[in-house]
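Renewal narrative, Specific Aim 1. Our central claim is that a sequence can be written position by position from structural information alone. The example that follows is taken directly from our test logs and has not been curated for this report. It begins with the structure tokens describing the chain, in the order in which they were read.
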């Protein structure tokens, strides 16, 4: 319990509005709940949310210590009272989340609070599986990333050992990730493997495709298989043998079959005609294909997980 004494400059404010200013990390819905549960009191008595505070009043706040911290990027998850997650699978070591298109995985220049990692941390905090005050260094973390406008399965580690193992398995290509995408045009041949070099332009946040080694270029290997073609649109399953920025988007565009809805590498006139503003790309299936020891994650060997639905597949190929 902590106490706050109301000074002259704070007198006249409503209880709920004063507390929300004093504790900016406390979500408004949780603040109202704490008032109802009598975890916020005035002069030892029950507080009303619209009660006007007087100079000299003493607030008793029965609230977790972390809500008294100053807002920082690493504690903004506390403000998410109702985390929104589509959980594909969860156990004591990890979570598989179906990230919706439009959601960023980590904070960037456009979004600090509504991120996938913040929703994960808020969820685990509210389940009392994790609290930053219990840990010296570890924070639940993502093992892989997906672009803002791409949807699909993301792996989150609940402990340091799981994070270490999954990161190593990704590097060793022992986790099979499959994507679905819709291209404008049908690739020729309908099935194949493409090797190229991708050079990233940090200012444009875009990559260029080369078919010869270039300084700074990274090898990119992509396998694809055409599942169906209807008119000018084709549904493909894609496997990444390397994990490069915008690999599928840039590679398919270079083949002359850009992704539907892709604003960077696609055809704007076609995208507008179909009314699509996000690339039709989804990480829809993941398999823990462990040929080597996986330590405490050996129980996942051979297990495969898939999202229930991919919106653009149902829309155009349902």
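The sequence written for that structure reads:
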């Amino acid at each position: 319990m902590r106490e706050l004494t109301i000074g002259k400059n704070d007198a006249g404010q409503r209880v709920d509005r004063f507390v929300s200013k004093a504790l900016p990390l406390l979500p408004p819905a949780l603040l109202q709940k704490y008032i109802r549960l009598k975890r916020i009191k005035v002069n030892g008595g029950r507080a009303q949310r619209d009660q006007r505070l007087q100079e000299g009043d003493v607030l008793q706040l029965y609230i977790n210590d972390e809500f008294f911290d100053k807002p920082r990027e690493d504690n903004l998850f506390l403000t998410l009272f109702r985390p929104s997650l589509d959980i594909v699978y969860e156990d004591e070591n990890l979570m598989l989340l179906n990230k919706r298109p439009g959601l960023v995985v980590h904070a960037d220049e456009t979004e600090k609070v509504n991120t996938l990692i913040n929703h994960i941390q808020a969820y685990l905090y509210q389940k009392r599986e994790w609290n930053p005050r219990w840990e010296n260094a570890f924070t639940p973390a993502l093992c892989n990333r997906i672009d803002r406008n791409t949807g699909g399965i993301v792996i989150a580690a609940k402990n340091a050992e799981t994070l270490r193992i999954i990161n190593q398995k990704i590097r060793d290509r022992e986790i099979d990730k499959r994507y679905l995408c819709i291209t404008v045009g049908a690739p020729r041949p309908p099935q194949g493997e493409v090797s190229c070099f991708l050079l990233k332009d940090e200012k444009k946040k875009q990559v260029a495709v080369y078919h010869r080694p270039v300084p700074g270029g990274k090898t990119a290997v992509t396998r694809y298989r055409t599942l169906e073609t209807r008119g000018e649109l084709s549904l493909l399953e894609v496997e990444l043998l390397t994990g490069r920025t915008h690999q599928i988007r840039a590679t398919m565009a270079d083949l002359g079959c850009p992704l539907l809805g892709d604003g960077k590498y696609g055809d704007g006139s076609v995208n507008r005609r179909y009314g699509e503003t996000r690339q039709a790309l989804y990480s829809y299936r993941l398999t823990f294909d462990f040929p080597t020891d996986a330590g405490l994650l050996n129980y996942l060997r051979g297990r495969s997980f898939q999202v229930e639905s991919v919106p653009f597949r149902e829309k155009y190929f349902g």
